[in-house]
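@channel sequence for tomorrow's demo:
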Amino acid sequence: MSGVNAVLSIARTALLTQQLAIQVTSHNVANVNTPGYSRQQLVMEPNNSTTIGLGEIGTGVHGQAIIQYHDKFMTAKVNQQMSSMTGFEAKKSSMKVVETLFNETTEEGLSKLLGQFWAAWHDLGNNPAGKAERATLVGRAGLLIDHFQSLYSDLMRLSTDMDINLGAGIEDINSLTGQIADLNVQIITADKGVGAANDLRDKRDYLVRQLAELMDINYFEIGSGAYTIMSNSGHILVETDRSWDLELSGGQVYWVSSTGAEVEMRSGDVQGGKLGGWLAVKQEIIPDVLDKVNNLAESFIREVNSQHSQGIGLAPFTTVTGAYASTNSAAAIGTSGSGLPFYDQVADGTFKLWLYDSSGNVIGGGATTITIDADVTTLDVLATTTIAGISGLDASVSSDGKLVISVNTTEQPTAAGFGFSDDTSSVLAALGINTFFDGYDTGSIALNSVITNNTDNIAAGTIDSTTGDYSLGDNENALALADLQIQNVDIGGQSATFDDYYNALVGEIGITSRGYNSGYDFSRNMVNQLSQLRDSVSGVSLDEEMTKLIQYQQAYSAAARLIQASDEMMQTLLSAK
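structure tokens (generated this afternoon):
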């Protein structure tokens, strides 16, 4: 084709093609602020030429494809760093809560409360019989107990909050994977039709980015154009038109297979994204902190009780009930089968049991020495045979498994009270006899009811191991208890003072928190830099689009001018005579 009709045809294709280019440019401008949008451009190529006498001559232009400026590698790197950043963000925000719990800049800090507790023992040592000093000690102990229990409840509340976050996050993940699977189907269908589904791909990539914010993922595009997405641990989340769900059950996250089988996903399986951060907080950070606080509380209870059980209050006991229950009184006291929380502190040894009359004189000429074989002696035997066999004493195991000792005036009419000394077996502390605290960890610590019912039972003094004498002015045990502040004791397998162990824990929390802050800052900077690189390829520049718009407008105007010229040429031919 040549001549006027050829010019008119070329002008027509030029008009249509430039109009299409303007439409693509308008689409870019309209989506300049759309998250995840990648700029598009019409690729133009000349129409097939035709042969004339002089050779080949062009026949115009057409739009070959609408391409998308999309850097897959850079997008994947952005998503990877986004997972890292949101994971650190989740850990960082949780550590702020933990840091608040261990804030030692206030008077309510645990370190200060411990100091006040030891100071109260020193004060009692200065006046062993003082009612006010004993009341102050109980008050200081109460504040310390409240703080321990508050730490426990706050850490448990944080763990519960993680469950809420995990539930919401899993719901979002399942929704995103379902939407991505649906978009896979739409993209496959669209690609088989008129061409690449650029906007659908942008939408899918944006959903993938949202998914990466929630958990670290690996993904790739298969030949059909669909995405296959897997968790970092290899669990398939999306494959073409199918998606696999996650599930939260009992505070644990599970991947549900095609057969319905549940595979647990722990913090090591999901290390990035908010889900990874929340799992790390729930399964690593909180258990680690709580374990260390429990170690401190357990050692604190054990050491104070062990020393307190060696002393005597202002008067001997007439009856006493152990603070700790045995779940199996027929099992050896020093074995786990006994069910005692401090069974492992029981050793082979002895303790002395003294019986007194109303004047404080020893009955029977001296103490009864009771021998304990940790792997043989049972609570039943200790109570009903050994102690109950002492004239003037009754002993039994209560229905809830606690040792009960009381004076038996029927057998010994002059008997008025009893006391303990020289316990090398630690069995008294393990049973909770003549102890200061009840409980065994951060959540269960409490004052022994023997103390709360009567502060006279605070054992500030000791019984003379030879004569059995005791006095109201004796402060030996109070000072020994106060000295626990500066003694190295076993805390969670470490030898340290209570203050040193706690200060190390606070320092560790601070270092961990700073590490998460640094990790978040680094990841955020990486996300910003990589996003800028991605946007330099995929982002819409209004200046660039306006420049293209002017070019396409000029080309469109020129094509319209060709039509006008063709019309004038046609009119000239028609008017020729």
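heads up for whoever presents: Residues 160-284 form one domain.
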